[in-house]
Design brief:
Layout (H helix, E strand, L loop, with lengths): L2 H16 L4 E5 L11 E8 L2 H13 L4 E4 L5 E3 L4 E8 L4 E3 L8 E7 L4 H10 L2 E2 L11 H7 L2 E2 L2 E2 H4 E7 L5 E5 L21 E11 L2 H18 L18 H7 L6 E2 L2 E3 L7 E3 L5 H19 L8 E3 L2
Bound molecules: flavin-adenine dinucleotide (FAD).
Flavin-adenine dinucleotide (FAD) binds next to β3, α4, β9 and β13.
Amino acid sequence: MPQHEKVAALWPVVTERFGGKPQANEPLANHTTSRLGGPADIWLPVTTVDDLVEAVTMARQHHVSLFMLGGGANILITDAGIRGLVIENRTKTVHIEPPQSGSNNRIVTADSGVVLPNLTRRCAREGLSGFEWAVGVPGTIGGAVVNNAGAYGSDMAATLVRAELLSPEGDRVWQPVDWFAYDYRTSVLKRQAGSEWIVLRAELRLTVASPDEVEARMNGFNERRKSSQPPGATMGSMFKNPPGDYAGRLIEAAGLKGYRVGQAQISTVHANFFQNLGGATATDMIALIQTAQQTVAEKFNVALELEIEVVGE
Ligand SMILES: Cc1cc2nc3c(=O)[nH]c(=O)nc-3n(C[C@H](O)[C@H](O)[C@H](O)COP(=O)(O)OP(=O)(O)OC[C@H]3O[C@@H](n4cnc5c(N)ncnc54)[C@H](O)[C@@H]3O)c2cc1C
């Protein structure tokens, strides 16, 4: 059966179960930080882990391709959009272990849809340190577990104890941090084809500290970010830093700071940030990416590797 017929067969099943929540042909530009991305055949926001598991299971039973969307902060969705079911993860439960006598650590368990800056602030209020680095990182815990998100010398690899996953076979399993084979902004999950393993929840180990100290560290990180990164519609860092150098420095030295294709621009503030000035297309953005890669390769013989992921048809 062709994919569009499988999607058509899935539609009445998801609307029966999830009521008015699923949308057909939803523009994904409404759900990414770059404000780019064509339509999803079916877009479904979920707010609980059980609903998330059920939605994934429905797609699998109908052999409909599935894409897990977190905050859309690290992906560039093509103008043709994503075929099949796109599940937007809005799960939001957080559990913070009560203080344990004799222990300086506490375990925080968060649904994969919890937004990083929100969780960081909640931990700060509890006087828990170790997650301050995430205060300015948009996106969800799920996306951060997949990408090994990090900043200011720390990352998920240093914070995660274990995560609960839905396996490709449909089992719910907890996997320890080592299982994720973390490296710079990547993991075993980032290297998977499609959304085969789904992150459901994550356990972080944080250290007891004074709320004022934690707050001060967070504010410091926010200030550093504000002074070095552009506001507006971006995907964060476009390229990974090549060993011993910085992607932004190379792009700037290649003379491309401020370079534009249509309404997509290499930021005038930081050349590793590519901005949608308003009305850009994903095609413009892809052309800008290719220009940066070609020019840096020609001038400096360095192959810039994408940090973001290009997805869609
Ligand atoms: C202004 C700005 C600043 C940024 N700064 C940083 C930074 O300092 N450090 C950093 O590391 N990143 C940074 N980023 C990038 C981004 O915030 C992170 O990569 C973040 O972890 C992406 O999470 P997300 O929920 O948006 O994932 P998405 O972009 O929605 O998805 C990313 C990938 O993860 C998969 N995925 C998402 N959720 C799940 C799930 N529950 N189960 C299975 N797969 C899933 C998706 O299918 C996709 O393949 C920045 C981005 C912006 C826009």
